């Protein structure tokens, strides 16, 4: 799959049904140098945004429950087309995995550094050498190291 990578930052869609969380995610992602090209609060709208974005879409920020409905159809579509996603949810990671979601896990309330680290991890295979438009330092004792260790194939880009 060919992605529409710009010179810096990623083209992202935020799939989140809580308006304030969605707005905060959008602002945080833009502060990290990424472009939010769509926001969806329910499954159907998310699928429309994904279809409409085509190859311009680099990754999706995905909550697991949207207006009382599972976001599994969104994750399945993304998997079929080879688009990575980051799970941002209030659920425990064991619940996320039990429901069949495979994307990197960032718990709510999220920390911008962990979100940024997760995005670096999911795009590393698609965009070798991508380091983002800003470097993010994580404390060496951060629990993010544990959660993200299995997804971080871009360690050369992240200062620890």
UniProtKB/TrEMBL annotation:
One annotated Gene Ontology cellular component of this protein: protein-DNA complex
Keyword Phosphoprotein attributed: yes
Molecular-function GO terms, alphabetical: phosphorelay response regulator activity; transcription cis-regulatory region binding
Response regulatory domain sequence ranges: 11-123
Entry superkingdom: Bacteria
UniProt key word DNA-binding: yes
Protein name in UniProt: Response regulator
Organism placement in taxonomy: Bacteria, Pseudomonadati, Pseudomonadota, Alphaproteobacteria, Rhodobacterales
Species for this entry: Pelagovum pacificum
Residue numbers bearing the 4-aspartylphosphate modification: 63
SMART domains, alphabetized: REC (SM00448)
Keywords: DNA-binding, Phosphoprotein, Two-component regulatory system
One Gene Ontology biological process: regulation of DNA-templated transcription
């Amino acid at each position: 799959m060919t992605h529409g990578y710009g010179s810096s930052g990623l083209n992202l869609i935020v799939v989140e049904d809580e308006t304030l969380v969605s707005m905060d995610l959008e602002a945080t992602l833009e502060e990290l140098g990424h472009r939010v090209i769509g926001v969806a609060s329910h499954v159907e709208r998310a699928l429309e945004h994904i279809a409409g974005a085509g190859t311009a879409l680099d990754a999706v920020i995905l909550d697991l429950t949207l207006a009382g409905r599972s976001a599994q159809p969104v994750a399945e579509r993304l998997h079929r087309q080879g688009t990575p996603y980051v799970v941002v949810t209030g659920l425990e990671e064991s619940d996320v995995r039990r429901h069949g979601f495979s994307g990197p896990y960032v718990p709510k309330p999220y920390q911008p550094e962990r979100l940024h680290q997760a995005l670096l991890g999911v795009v590393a295979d698609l965009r070798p050498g991508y380091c983002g438009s800003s470097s993010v330092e994580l404390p060496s004792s951060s629990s993010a190291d544990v959660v993200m260790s299995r997804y971080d194939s871009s360690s050369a880009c992240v200062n620890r």
